[in-house]
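FYI - complex with cytidine-5'-triphosphate, inputs then prediction.
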Amino acid sequence: MTKPRILMIIGGGIAAYKSIELVRLLRKAGYVVRCVITRAGEQFVTPLTLAALSENKVYTNLFDLKDEVEMGHIQLSREADLVVVAPATADLMAKMAGGIADDLATTLLLATDKPVLAAPAMNVRMWLHAATQRNVATLRGDGVTVMEPDEGEMACGEFGPGRLPEPAAIFAAIKAALSSPPPLAGGVGGGTVPSSVLPLSSDMPSPSPSRQREGDLSGQPDFADEDHRPLYGRRILITAGPTHEPIDPVRYIANRSSGKQGFAIAAAAAEAGAEVLLIAGPVELPTPPGVIRVDVETAVEMAAEVEQGLPVDAAIMVAAVADWRAADPAGQKIKKDGSGQVAPLALAENPDILAGLAKSPHRPTLLIGFAAETNDVVAHAEAKLARKGCDWIVANDVAADPMGGESNRVHIVSKTGIDSWDRLPKHAVARKLMEKIADELDARIPRQPD
Ligand code: CTP
């Protein structure tokens, strides 16, 4: 399999140092990285550092004839699978929005026919300025994926949105952009990021309705209808799949969760217009369009990623998290000694991610747990609801159809009652659940009139 090729454009700003970490992450994952650095960017990171980390030549100047002989700027802009602008400064985004091409970076951005992802970084006033917001809207309209900047204390001492998203978040957005279907049409330089690639932002355009959908049930909500985006503007975090808990380098504790229901929920949430962060245990499932996915292996990693993903409006914890992990995983493969004795395996309890989230200061407005039960389904779910401190438990009756099947019979258990649904395909459960979640969020966080 060929490795993804990234053309990184590094603008000028104090956050440019984080681009070094991003290059490191990309290289570690085996991506091919070429860096272009603007003149202002060179004030903050050196081409030498980037060349050493990317193991590739770094480009700085449009008019370097030798470079044009080696590789023309058109070719440089097109040989990548994705162009990433990080940090995307106010100035750089203004030029991109206006189609200005007065240096190598902006020329490449105008000439490329590949998807473009921009990770902004600037002072909070600059970010909130009407001009910048206008440029961001223009870029998004052109098909560029513009991530939301992080919020927090800035290098200049002010507080608010404008910080460069963390390298891990940019990396996740890159993975999401690369795993999305090919561009539809139009956009900057004739190519565009599919609008289904959504960063975690609050004012993104709705995802494209052009996806193929299979097996719609009549009476199920139809999120392909562009006007029907009941979760538009909502941020939703979903955990899915099993976790693997290492015993030694070759063995692990696992369970039979397929991840299918969690992935179906992530797909339905994105189709319903939400910004979706999917934290997935080890499963071989494709990332649904429009979903940002972070892969984890263990419960402890999942707990950390969930915390990183906050705040969100709703969290749906579908993962079958292992309750236990090896207390002391061995660094080398454990050998049997042939004595026939039972091997000692001390276990430690994993963090309960759902219960922890319920107590978090950043508790989502709507917190939903899942529970697969074989008997006394509703009674067990009611007990779990109280124990975990969540708002709903989606109780899944697995007596007739164990984990891994294509359909589920669920009961939504809350403090106010029980909503029992017929057995439905997992994607239909997901869509119906999104309708219910949208109504609940609209009741809990009323929408402002336009
Ligand atoms: N869960 C979690 N972290 C854990 C265990 C479970 O976040 N360490 C979440 C699951 O994602 C699910 C809910 O809690 O949303 C219920 O999971 P379940 O395995 O049924 O709960 P347990 O507390 O492990 O109960 P049981 O004894 O029935 O396995």
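The first helix runs from residue 16 to 28. The domain at 188-444 is CATH 3.40.50.10300 (Rossmann fold).
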